[in-house]
From TrEMBL:
Family, similarity comment: Belongs to the YjdM family.
Span of domain Protein YjdM N-terminal: 5-34
A Pfam family matched in the record: Zn_Ribbon_YjdM
Protein name, UniProt field: Protein PhnA
Signal peptide segment: none
Domain (Protein YjdM C-terminal) ranges: 45-112
InterPro entries recorded: YjdM (IPR004624), YjdM_C (IPR013988), YjdM_N (IPR013987)
Organism: Rhodobacter capsulatus (strain ATCC BAA-309 / NBRC 16581 / SB1003)
Highest taxon of the lineage: Bacteria
Length: 114
């Protein structure tokens, strides 16, 4: 794509977007997104870097996540095995040892390549 045809940022509507590999990036708000629209529109759930996720994948948490209503934290680098994709804001259901069943957002995980 040329700079003339890059879409504006869906978060802040900035027209200064640019493309890095398979993702579009907004320099003003830092939002990154995959071309082709929202994941909910296409029915495909992608991780933080644009890899397509499917049921049973293993992912790694890319950011410390505080658990709402608890003092526990899911640390960066935590491997989550056997994820299940579900519709909604928290689009990954999984079970973490020591924590139990939780929902994660796909934007905070990266797929582990086999």
């Amino acid at each position: 794509m040329t700079d003339d045809t890059l879409p504006p940022c869906p978060e802040c509507a900035s027209t200064f977007t640019y493309q890095v590999d398979a993702l579009f990036t907004c320099p003003e708000c830092g939002h990154e997104w995959a071309p082709g629209g929202d994941a909910a529109e296409s029915g495909v759930i992608r991780d933080a870097v644009g890899n397509v996720l499917s049921d049973g994948d293993t992912v790694t948490v890319i950011k410390d996540l505080k658990l709402k209503g608890s003092s526990q934290v899911v640390k960066v680098g935590t491997k989550v095995r056997g994820i299940r994709l579900v519709p909604g804001d928290h689009d990954i259901d999984c079970k973490l040892p020591g924590i139990g069943q939780i929902g994660l957002k796909s934007q905070f995980v990266k797929k582990v390549q086999d």
